[in-house]
Amino acid sequence: MTLTLLKSKIHCARVTEANLHYMGSITIDEALMQAAGLLPGEQVHVVNNMNGERIVTYVIKGPKGSGCICLNGAAARCFQVGDEVIIMAYAQMTPEEACAFRPQVIFPESGTNRI
To answer: Were both Cys, which of 5, 50, 71, 104 would link to 75 (CB 3.0–4.6 Å)?
Structure first.
């Protein structure tokens, strides 16, 4: 048996861009990705604290130190610049692995999306 547990979380970041005319995904500042343990192409759940929208997409690496949180493609209709979001990734683990595992949770600086 495996369990699905929170692996990584970027808590209360701000959307800096919404790009409707892109193939989809979320672009995240590389520094935030590294701090949260996220990889390019990794599946994430994105929750919009302002309107309750929830989407599942994948990560694209953004410029390091830029503070970029950009929703691309159709997701851009669910998020606006300035919206507060939570970005979460999950992992499959055995119960034994889960007992010892601790997720990487980061809290970016308010208004800058920097660590």
So the answer is: 71
Which residue is catalytic, options 58, 66, 90, 110?
A: 58
Strands of the sheet containing 69-72, edge to edge, are: 17-19, 69-72, 25-29, 54-62, 43-48, 84-93, 3-14, 104-106
Known catalytic membership, residue 58: yes
pLDDT, tens only, 10-53: 999 999 999 999 888 999 999 999 999 999 999 999 999 999 99
pTM across the whole model: 0.95
Helical (H) or strand (E) element with 48: strand 43-48
Catalytic residue (one of 25, 66, 90, 110):
25
> Among candidates 110, 111, 89, 100, which has minimal Cα distance to 35?
89
**E strand intervals along 52-100:** 54-62, 69-72, 84-93
Q: Identify whether 22 is a catalytic site residue.
A: no
